[in-house]
Design a protein that fits this description.
By secondary structure, the protein is an alpha/beta fold. Helices cover about 35% and strands about 15% of the residues. It contains 17 helices and 14 strands. A hairpin with a 7-residue loop joins strand 11 and strand 12.
Length: about 500
């Protein structure tokens, strides 16, 4: 009998995850040397105490492994997005190239050291949710090796593609990471962008309540906190007024506003546009046909002046201008379209005669090749991971398959603001940093500002929330000045919340 055959059955069938790698690096920031280890690896998540999935992550830990040093868990959104955007765009020790104004330089992609990395003041762990990056469900055949037929585990390949299961998996991962690296005593933070911002707000409650992880602070970046605001209708009107200040800023930026000159300070524009949005515009939207026609005409004229859009278009739509229509209307005479995610970025409309934009979004579609090239070069070359897996930067199968769990007909719409409020009550020491880019038309900054104002916080709780907005769009950190200011603000935030 061979040695292999002598092994106990449970040892023969034990699942072995992909092989990770630990590498050592040195980063120099303004003559300061930071020596750190990079852990590129998978953590296995279980179901019924049996392995079910492998969550890939990259962690950067300063060489001394000081438990008093903060640890920040970082992820993006989608759903279906890997963490590469924040990893290589703003937070990690390496970054992909962007011009100072957020536009994309000529290929090829060349990674550089990131002087604005947060590694100078916190250890970092970038998490790729299941179905993104290198994170995968474990193959059913692999799980069931050596098992009797009746005990075989059935694998639902889309199990993690829903709201609650996703949040559970993130919590399970963080628990296991803290145990593996002996960091339960470290100040802990979570940071997420877009749907990742929704995740952070929900995990402010669930990570502490369900997984026992204390949080010093949460960092919510360009979030979608309440889903109903993403798809306003003739009847759900709040989203239209939330969008208006960002549209007004965009019109000013491109020299189309009849109220503001191109060099007008952005603070002056938003102050005026916000006041109009929550007074005159919301009044017109809510009153509908009950409003006096003369009063309505005055408001429509003001909207036209703010936005640089013809009065007839605004009148026909009753003041409801979707961002995707606005981005084609504003510079239509020049055959140019604006970016949804950063309205300062311009592109050519290849099909100007068609009703919908069928060409690329100049602020998102054009960046995918940059991040895909960058993350593959970094992980495979610098971090020395050897795998045949494709790195899923944006997995649209995850996005299309996403479920919000079972709901009944009269359940309120999906949102995370209540869970953030719960988390703040659960832990009155936890600080919140909430931020947006002024030129983001997909998750406009004013929606979050208004929601915070409606959270009915006690005075001592209000002191725990910092709201910051930056030049740029959804990924405002692609702007050099915004990335630098973002780092300074987060470093100060963590210093005050440790």
């Amino acid at each position: 009998m061979t040695e292999e055959n002598k092994k106990p059955e449970n040892e023969k069938s034990k699942y072995i995850p992909p092989k990770g790698k630990t590498t050592e690096h040195t980063l120099v920031i303004k003559k300061e040397k930071i020596k750190y280890k990079a852990y590129a690896d998978w953590i296995v998540l279980n179901k019924n105490e049996k392995p079910l999935s492998e969550m890939f992550h990259v962690a950067y830990i300063k060489e001394d492994n000081d438990i008093n040093r903060p640890i920040t868990f970082v992820f993006n959104g989608g759903p279906g997005a890997a963490s590469a955007f924040l990893h290589l765009g703003a937070v990690g020790p390496k970054k992909v190239p962007f011009n100072d104004d957020g536009s994309i330089p000529k290929p090829p992609v060349k990674l550089t050291d990131n002087e604005d990395t947060w590694l100078s003041f916190t250890d970092l762990c970038f998490i790729d949710p299941i179905g993104t990056g290198f994170s995968r469900m474990i193959d059913e055949e692999e799980i069931n090796k050596g098992k009797e037929k009746e005990s075989k585990q059935k694998v639902d390949t889309k199990e993690y593609y829903n709201l609650n299961r996703d949040l559970e998996s993130m919590g399970e991962f963080i628990q296991r990471f803290l145990s593996r690296h002996n960091r339960w005593e470290s100040p802990a933070y979570i940071a997420g962008e877009s749907y990742g911002g929704f995740r952070v707000a929900a995990m402010a409650k669930r990570l502490q309540l369900n997984h026992g992880v204390s949080l010093n602070g949460v960092i919510i970046i360009s979030p979608a906190l309440e889903f109903v605001l993403l798809v306003p209708s003739d009847y759900d009107i709040q989203g239209w007024s939330d969008e208006f200040p960002s549209l007004a800023v965009t019109a000013m930026w491109h020299g189309k506003s009849k109220i503001f000159k191109k060099e007008t300070p952005i603070e002056d524009v938003i102050r005026s546009a916000e006041n109009f949005a929550h007074s005159e515009l919301i009044k017109m939207l809510s009153m509908g046909s009950d409003m006096n026609p003369d009063e309505k005409a005055v408001i429509i004229k003001k909207m036209s002046d703010y936005l640089g859009i013809d009065e007839a278009v605004i009148k026909k739509s009753e003041g409801r201008i979707p961002f995707w229509r606005f981005t084609r209307l504003l510079l239509k005479s020049e055959n140019k379209v604006l970016g949804y995610y950063d309205s300062t970025q311009l592109g050519i409309d290849p099909f100007p005669d068609r009703d919908m934009l069928e060409g690329p979004d100049p602020s998102m579609d054009t960046t995918e090749r940059v991040y895909t090239s960058g993350i593959n070069a970094h992980i495979r070359k610098n971090l020395e991971i050897e795998t045949d897996r494709d790195y899923h930067l944006l997995n649209m199968e995850v996005n299309r398959s996403w479920k919000m769990d079972e709901t009944h007909a009269f359940q309120r719409s999906i949102g995370a603001t209540d869970e953030l409020r719960y988390g703040m009550a659960l832990n009155p020491h936890m600080k919140i940093f909430l931020c947006h880019g002024y030129h983001d038309l997909v998750t406009p900054y004013y929606a979050s500002k208004r929601l915070v104002n409606q959270m009915r916080l006690m005075p001592e709780q209000q002191k725990n929330i910092i709201i910051k907005n930056y030049g740029g769009g959804h990924m405002f950190y692609s702007w050099k000045a915004s990335r630098e200011n973002f780092k300074k603000d987060i470093e100060q935030f963590m210093e005050q919340s440790k």
